[in-house]
Amino acid sequence: MHAFTPDSLQTRVNLGVFDARETFLAAVDLYRQDPQFCVPAQVREIFARRNAETPIVLLGRSDFGANLIHGFGQRARVLHVVDDFRAHRGEQYRGVDIISTDRFLEMARQDPDLIGINACRNDFSRRFFDDLCRNHRIPHLNFEQATRAFGLSDAMDPRVADWGGVIAARCADYLKLGQRMADPYSVETLYAVLTFHLTGNPEWFLNVARPYPTLYVRSGLFSFSEHEKMVDCGASIGESTTALIGTTQGRFDRSWMIEPDRLNIATLQGFLRKYAGTPHAQKLSLHPVAVGEHPDKVPFSHVGNHGGAVLPPEMAQACPVADFVRVERIDDIVDDQPTIIKMDIEGYELPALKGAARTIRAARPKLMLSAYHRSTDLLDIPQFIDTIAPDYRIGLRHHTEDRWDTCLYFY
User: Fold this and answer.
1) How far apart are CA 333 and CA 273, in angstroms?
2) What is the CATH number of the domain that holds 121?
3) Who's near 261: CB < 8 A, 6+ residues apart?
4) For residues 356 and 341, what is the distance between their CA atoms, to the nearest angstrom?
5) 202: in domain
6) Which residues pair with 255 in a beta bridge?
7) 279: containing domain
8) What backbone phi and psi angles, to 5 degrees, belong to 69?
């Protein structure tokens, strides 16, 4: 077995030739010995000494940063957010003043306990701040390390929680999933993504990631005919249906676009108007509902683009009546046998699949499913699909330069 060191697992440097499965198991073992192994010793010392008075500056203005601001609460002092493009405007982000990089460096010189947390999603920006902090010897963390170091998961959106504990506890199940994967690239992707979640180092998934335009219909795992019928759950702004139209050069039979976010619905109505009077007009339908296991009405956060989501039940009372959305089963929406079901519905993929069980059994469509919103998705989704259609082949791809868009494919 390869002789991994804590440093090589954490940094992905000096590994030599290695086996992805062995690397994953070594990372699990290291996590079990010390879940904080990926947190720099200097940061641990500062937090142990200063606790809730630990000074934090967020590097980059992003939704990751917004989650950190919410999660920190009274656990540390978030002083500023760095964004050079907005610093001169005197703006705030989520109630926190925005400053420039130069101001951040000045603050770090004055207070050696100042911790920078890299909240960037774009790889170029992330590397800029990492390099800046290393060169100026500023204590720093990335988003995943910060979530673990400060124990923020319980106070944050489950979609950005720390997966480490779940992965370590269900290691045997992940190994079985690795055996179910239909191709070597899927196996390598699985263990790379899991090792990222254990170590907090994005280099692990970046080494297997495919470009974002390959998401779903361009995964490379299967080809398409000119008679595809796609159930597009989480149609958002029409990206997946547009990709289907482009990939098949307009030769497809149907797309049911399902989307509950009212901001996206307006965008999709414009999308449909573009095809008015063309042969595609009769092939496209918009269904302004959420999908789930049972018909229902649920509170929903309407934010547009890719962020809208069903709210947890405890937030129902605070949610305006106008923000509730209707839930329907896919089995009740589709009026034909689909050849594809795609889902990107912010952590509600499993209930939606349960509401599509009859359709999946009857039609055996290709399934393209987001599996990154909850720490258990990579396990629970295949286990459920196996109960209704156990002869699917399973593939896995990662499609972005951040933690989003790890997707399961059944074909």
Assistant:
1) 22
2) 3.40.50.720
3) 236, 300, 302, 303, 304, 308
4) 9
5) no
6) 230, 284
7) 212-410
8) -60, -45
Contacts of 309 (CB under 8 A, 6+ apart): 159, 300, 301, 345, 346, 347, 348
- Which segments of 296-374 are extended strands (E)? 296-301, 309-310, 324-328, 340-343, 366-370
Residue type, 191: Y
Which amino acid would we find at residue 298?
Answer: V
Q: What mean pLDDT is reported for the chain?
A: 96
CB atoms within 10 A of CB 322: 7
Q: 254 is written with which tokens?
A: 């149907």
User: pTM for the full model?
Assistant: 0.95
Written as six digits, the tokens of 164 are 């480490």
Looking up tokens 């045997």, which residue turns up? Answer: 172
Q: Are residues 331 and 220 in the same domain?
A: yes
Q: Which of 138, 157, 182 is at the close of a domain?
A: 138
Indicate the residue type of 374: R
Question: Measured between alpha carbons, how far is 362 from 355 in angstroms, rounded to an integer?
Answer: 13
CA distance 45 to 54: 11
**Tens-place pLDDT, residues 316-340:** 899 999 999 999 999 999 999 999 9
| Boundary residue ending a domain (115, 138, 161) | 138
